[in-house]
Amino acid sequence: MKFTRMLTTKLTSFWLMSLAAIAFVFLLSAMMSFVQLTYKFQQQKVAELETLLIEHYHTQPDWELESWLPPMLLAFNTVEFRLTMNNEVLFAYQGNVQTQNPMVYTHLLDPQSGLSMTLSLPQPFDHYSVSWYELLILGVGLLAVIALVRFGHIWLSQQLDGIEELAQRSRLILQGKHEQALATPGNGKPRLINRALTKLLEELQDAHKERGRFDKFIRSNTFLDAQTRIGNRLFLNNRLDALSHDQGMVAHGVIYLLEMDDLDFIQQAKGVGAVKDLLHATVNGINSILQSLPNSIFARRTHNQFAIVVPHVSLIEADQLASKLLKVCLSQPLPDGVDNRDNFYHLGCAYFTAGDNVNQLLDEADMALRAAQLQGNSNWFMYDKGAIDEEFAKGSVRWRSFLENALVQRRFYPFSQPIMDSDGGEHHKEIFTRARDNQGALVRATLFIPMANKCGLMPQIERQMIERVLVLLGQEQHKGQVYSVNLSLDTLMSRAFTHWLKTTLLEHRHLTPQLIFEVSEDIVVQHQDKLRPKLDMISKMGARLCVDHVGQQVVGTYYIRECHFDMIKLHRSIVRHIHLRPENQLFIRSLIGGLYRTEVQVSAEGVEVFEEWQTLQILGVGMAQGMYFSDPVELQ
């Protein structure tokens, strides 16, 4: 029971007991007064009778008692009367009143003559009966007491409800639910304290937002180019490290090097402002194209050179993208007086496949850029490495056919990788999706997931994967195991999948605490308003939420509090060689500092060596996964 409710009950009980005690005392006093008054009245009658007898005895010796005394005794409701003198009975009277305990008065009227009387009367209140009028007064009095107690209870409860609301807000603050406490100000009393809590919570919220802006400022100055606000060379190196393993690329794609000739000449002739306007126009045009390409990288390598990395595209798509990029660059207006538009932009392209060396790839892109510059006009050139892996050349029709057949034949299989805590224990396992072709060979996720996104089949694939995980959780050997499952943007935005997921989690509510759903940071930031209701639904069902790829983009981190994530997972580009990169360490320290006094757990992905894990532990990261601990293994 709530403390204030208990206090209200106790105060009301004390008040009622006090009123009952007072009423009892008043009633007892009234009864005692009534008894005493009736006795006094009866004694006055006896005294009057004594006076009359003494006066008649002294003035009329012959008494003549029979003429006047019996009517008086009858009026007194006399039970019995005797008048004696020296033990000789002078007059006796026997009334018709019956009583068990009569009041007997024996008085000596004249000591000299020995005249005395004995008078028996009924108890003064034996013949008293309560009338309806008196009962009505008593009932009205009791109803007035009950109504007063009820009104007092309601009034006291209303007064203490304000204290209860203050206590509830204070409890939410102590639990760290500041947004909920701010959203429910209520009518807490004393109102001054309630307004003070609201003001402090608003200032705390502003402080958290300011901390998020400060974190973003630190990351911006570390990983962003100050002039164009896109990634700098350090950002590019981190992202390339994340796309590679042991200097070998883990997926296919293309890298472009864009160089703007005579940029220094424009700066000398037209000033810094003209260069800044040109750069902003060019960067905005390129960004408009890259928005539809997930996981693309755009960074500034040098003063007049930019790098663009787009994974998971075919060679034909890379050629088409190169033409689009050059076209949007040539559409930007140059400052007045600059006439070399036809020889200003040059684009070098290098297509890569899994296993290609990163440094060699950059050299090939640079050679392609020089070849484009040698041609004289603004154009692009693709470095020719010969035959491209045939699996990259599969058309969308073949990929759709393959994916649909794999869905029907349930040839998507879960692979798991453990997430280890700082004590060396397993916290949970992350589920990775792998597919098998008709020959039983595994198809890499980096191949079929981009194609599944293009074909709109990710909701069906991830639904099938969740079903497999729920079946595993229902088995005895997986009892108590916790699994995390990744959800894509298309999956979360699908109304059919959301309805299915809600129904499924309700049916398996006993298993939902063993599920963690992971969502990528970039889609949360870009679609926060649309995704928040769906994420809240998952959280209310009992499952936990994790945002992964944190640090991949330079964005604020206040969304972590607003979307109520339980865990965050650092992107491998931040984790890679963390022991050698103080700027990445600064980002992690700032991020963990911003999550102070929250229950958000911090994990890291892509840990490959002991030094990385040791540095992460020193920085305050509590969990990690990667090749250092275990490779993904198929779940049976």
Automatic annotation (TrEMBL):
Span of domain GGDEF: 251-385
Keyword annotations from UniProtKB, A to Z: Membrane, Transmembrane, Transmembrane helix
Superkingdom, taxonomy of origin: Bacteria
Record-annotated membrane-spanning stretches: 12-35
Domain called EAL: residue spans: 396-636
Pfam families, sorted: EAL (PF00563), GGDEF (PF00990)
PROSITE patterns to which the protein is assigned, alphabetical: EAL, GGDEF
NCBIfam families: PRK11059.1
Record protein name field: RNase E specificity factor CsrD
Species annotation: Shewanella cutis
